[in-house]
Amino acid sequence: MVSERGLQVLRAIVQDYVDTREPVGSKAIVERHAFGVSAATIRNDMALLEDEDLIVAPHTSSGRVPTDKGYRVFVDHLAQVRPLSPAQRTAISSFLEGPSDLDEVLARTVRALTVLTGHVAIVQYPSFARATVSHVELVRLDALKVLVIVVTDTGRVSQRLAFPGMEIDEDRMQRIRGRVSDLVVGVPVREGVAGVATAVEAGETPGDPDGPALQAILRVIGEELDGFRQDRLVLAGSANLARSEADFRGSIYPLLEAIEEQVTLLRLMGEMVADDQGLAASIGRENEPFGLSEASVVASDYDATGSRARVGVLGPTRMDYPTNLAAVRAVARYLTRLLDEDENAR
């Protein structure tokens, strides 16, 4: 069992090691922190922390550094999530302010978060499987090319070119637009995917003059709606991993691979357990099943029109957890409010 003072010594070791990247000794703790006891007493506390696998000596006769278990105890019991400074809050609002579609808002979100934390920023798209298609627009660019625009009631917008394989005049465009709207507008995305798939599978109706063009456009719409159902991430700040490479004992390649593949990070973000404030952390060896045992992820839930997703940062285990937790919480709250205001405005 670790005493209350022992836990405060652990807090001091975590804070000093994060600040200095140097192992922390008893003398440094006495000099930097007002414990009111001797260095010998602090050494006894550190020995107990070491027995509990909360700190470890990286070298003979050196100071001590936190273990993954020590970081976990710190985050769960000792870390005080600091309020962001006015400058940090201004930075968030300046990045996220302004009307835009969801894609651009989430892109701005990760840019803001990586600037605030200096780590890789991650935002999950909300699930759009329960969203409803609110609008489909077909824009005739020329006789053989159509721009297909699909919009959901949650603000998701897709734009993609379709090549109907036959000439499209305005009369034909109008007829196809009406048929497509009847099939998917006002319908949940999941049902829209099924309806379009059925229509494509049925193929062209004999004698239908619009059949080839309709089929080509429906295939594009079906693929876009199916994409709305897929879990996706937006990331920024991968270069920050290289800057903190000294904090990784091994290669940073597994992290770069996870960032590129996204599937691993999607699983990790989905399985993290949040506290009653919507904050979650997965630290070091806890990430071993995902091949990321030298990294930590902190995240916060945000709401988007009834769907919940996460925003977070990924970096080395030697990270400033209180500041990063405060940053993801603030960004998540701002993002929730922004999406709610956008929904109310529509």
Shape: elongated
Which blocks of ≥5 consecutive residues have pLDDT under 50? none
Distance between the termini: 57 Å
Number of helices, where a helix is a run of at least 4 consecutive DSSP H or I residues: 13
Keywords:
single chain, 346 residues, alpha+beta, 5-stranded antiparallel sheet, 3-stranded antiparallel sheet, 49% helix
Protein topology:
Blueprint: H1 4-20, H2 26-32, H3 39-51, E1 55-56, E2 65-66, H4 68-78, H5 86-96, H6 102-117, E3 120-124, E4 133-142, E5 145-152, E6 157-162, H7 170-184, H8 189-202, H9 211-229, E7 233-236, H10 239-243, H11 253-261, H12 263-271, E8 279-283, E9 295-304, E10 307-316, H13 321-345
Antiparallel strand pairs: 1-2, 3-7, 3-10, 4-5, 5-6, 8-9, 9-10
Q: What does this protein look like?
A:
- This protein has 346 residues and is α+β, with helices and mostly antiparallel strands.
- The protein contains 13 helices and 10 strands.
- It has helices at 4-20, 26-32, 39-51, 68-78, 86-96, 102-117, 170-184, 189-202, 211-229, 239-243, 253-261, 263-271, 321-345, and strands spanning 55-56, 65-66, 120-124, 133-142, 145-152, 157-162, 233-236, 279-283, 295-304, 307-316.
- It has a 5-stranded antiparallel beta sheet, sandwiched between helices. A 3-stranded antiparallel beta sheet has the order 4-5-6. The protein has a two-stranded antiparallel ribbon with strand order 1-2.
